[in-house]
Model the fold of this input.
Amino acid sequence: MEKYRIRGGNPLVGTVDISGAKNAVLPILAAVVLTEEVCCIENIPNIVDVRTALDILEALGAEIRSIDAHTVEIDPSRLHTHVVPHDLSRHMRASYYFLGSLLGRFGIARSSMPGGCNFGVRPIDLHLKGFRALGATVPDTLDNGMIEVSAEKLTGNSVYLDQVSVGATVNIMLAAVRARGLTVIENAAKEPHIVDLANFLSSMGADIRGAGTDVIKIRGVDYFRGTSYSIIPDQIEAGTYMAAAVATGGDVLVRGVIPKHLESITAKLEELGATVEELEDDDAIRVSCTGPLRHCNVKTMPHPGFPTDMQPQIAVLLSLASGTSFLTENIWDNRFKYVAELQRMGADIQVNGHTAIFQGVSHLTAAPIKSHDLRAGAAMVIAALCAQGVSIVDDIQYIERGYENIVEKLQSLGADIERVYVPDQPFANAQ
Ligand code: UD1
Done:
């Protein structure tokens, strides 16, 4: 029943610190089970998905010690099961990374079909193709909603991904690091979190080349040592605050980022009329916007293209940009559900298949709006921050899966946002 109450109109001004990357920390937490020694992971974002991943590790038998708010020590020496509990895995899509890592550690892994954000069909056929190529047995049907993969021994092989997939690249890497011989993943994903996972695995003793290109070569090793590792900053959280700064006509220093990871986002914000300054020495980006926004076209693509996870947030800016803009979604089938919410705030948007067409309007008007998924929820927050009047954002649990302290961070930038308890009124219209 908790919602966000946001009064729009305040330009965001000040400095925001970016947390560790959700999509890097989740595969890295799964990768910890590959060793029997203690790992210390730093710069962990305090978000719901991380708590779920830590709960899974505990359920498997790992001991977890919090060192501080963003650092944990994990001792995976006494794991006692290869089964990821259904109650935990169904809440988080990335729980399927334990399939790859437990297969690597024990030669067998069992988990339920993954949950997570619903923006169309989310198959895992490429993950399974990879496991099979390494010699694992993968049944064609689910057993009571669970999937079990097993292998007497994993053997390196070539795997061509028919479509660039972050999840499949991660899962194949997690199993291949323990396979005998050489695995070559072709048409691999190149996202910063793939490189971060490769760096983490290498710090444990893995032999991985080419992460960050579309051919990753992995030579399996038997022994993985414990390690200390700091997670990269969250590219999408940074992009979200950059978009919010532009939408509100603000001036924000986004700190603790890797500017290179933000290039595709920076390019589009500049095209829209924002000023973006990279402060390479300070690991920061300053984003400001004073004038009206200009229309532009955006197409989502695998890295280094414009990320699909920034698509709903940039849509808010295109709603306000003068003229006609086109936004094409090339990764997911059904990622425009939030458009109905923006339309109720006065945006002029038409969706035609994979493309949304925007006729810019002068302003958005506050409304009760809801989050359809994590990034759509972030877009609703941005829309409410720049709308005239007070908006109530519902279904904030999606947002809190991936944004650490979003209310506090926005408040520190001058936003009028608070978490409120608003009881549902199912019979409000009954006479
Ligand atoms: C990850 C991100 C998600 C992001 C997406 C694309 C995490 C936890 N989630 O999701 O936020 O939106 O990358 O950047 O990191 N596909 C198949 N078969 C498969 C796997 C994928 O056809 O076996 C297709 C999907 O339907 C989709 C495309 O490949 O059309 C990309 O999906 P993928 O990169 O795998 O996304 P996720 O890893 O699920």
